[in-house]
Design brief:
The protein is mainly α. It is about 70% helix and about 0% strand. It has a two-stranded antiparallel sheet.
Length: about 375
Amino acid sequence: MAAIRFERRLDVSTRQAALARVGGAVAALLLAGLLLLLTGRNPFSLLADGISATVGDRQGIDETLVIATPILMNALAVAIALRLKVWNIGSEGQFFMGAWAAAGVGLYLDLPAALLLVLMALAGMAAGAVWILVPALSRAYWNVNEIITTLLLNFVAIQWVFWFSLGQWRDTKTAVVQSTPEVNATLPDFPGSNTLHIGFLVPIVIAVIMFLVFRYSRWGYEVDMIGGNPRAAAFAGIPVKRRIVTVMLLSGAIAGLSGMIHLAGAAIRLNGSISNNYGLSGFIVAALAGNSIVGLVVGGLFIAAMLHAGVALQSEGFSVFIVAGVYGLVLAGIGLGEVAARFRLVRPAPAGPAPAAPAPVVAAEAP
C-alpha cells in the first residue's frame, strides 16, 4: 500500500491562503461552539454577546481598537523582520523597553505636551532598537540564532521594568505601589471618544508605508531578495549583513514605539504588567499573515476583537480558562488552515505490472 505524504504546493495565491485561514478560524469556532454546547452553555448566546461587546456600539469599537493598537504595532515589527526570514521573538521585550524609556522621559522632563510626546516616541524607538542590537549583530556577523537571543531578552526586559516600577520610579504618594506616577504627557483622545486615543492611527500609517516600500522601492526589493536567497543577493552586490542589521533595528524601533504609544495612550503609568502579551499576539498575527500587510491588519483586528469579547464575557461569569481555550483553538484553526493552503496530501500512483521481456531475436539461417 502506497504511503500518503505531504507535498508543498508550488503556487498558492494570496486569495487561496486567506480563504484557508478564514476557513480554519470558522471551523475552530464551530468546534468551540460544539464543546460549549456539550458543557451546557449556549454558544449562540455567547457569540451574540461577544459581537455586541466588540462592535455593538461606539464604546465597544473604541475599546477593541485600543487593544488592537499594540498588537498591530508588534505584528508590524515582527513582519518586517520576517521579510528577511529573521524571527524577532523579542518584540515583547522591546515593547517593555520602549515603554520604560518613554516613561523616563515623560516622568522627569517638564516640557510642552507636544514636544514631550515627540521625545518620548524617539526614546521608545531608540530603546527598542538598542534592545535588539546585540541579536542583530550576532545574527548578521556570527550567524547566531536570533530566536534564542531575542526570546531570552524578553525576560530581562520585563524584570527590568518591574525593578524600576517597584523601586526607583515607584509612586509613593498614592496607594498604587506597583507602578510609577502618571507621565506628564498623554496622547489626545480621538474626536468624539473618551476611550480611543489617536495612537491607533500609527500602525495604520506604518502598514501603508510598509506596503508601498516593499512593493515599489529598491530597498524593499533587496530585503525580499535576501529573504528569498541570501547567497544570490550577495552575489548581486546587495550588502546582506548591513541589511540584516538595519531591518532588525527597524523592527526593534517599531516594537519600542508600540510601548511608548500604549504607555502614553492607555496605560498612563509604567508597571510590570503593562503588556497583556501584546508581543506574543503580534508575533502570532505576523506569522499567520505571511507577507500580506492587509492580512496582518485584518488578523490583528480579529485577535483584538476576540480578546475584548473574552474580557466582556468574563464580566458575565464566563471563565477566563474557557476564554483562553477558545482563543487558542481559533489560533490553531488558523494555523491548520495555513498548512492546508500550502500543502496537499498526495498518494503515489500504484506501480503497474512490469513490462513483458522482449522476445529473443533469432538470426535467420543462410540458405
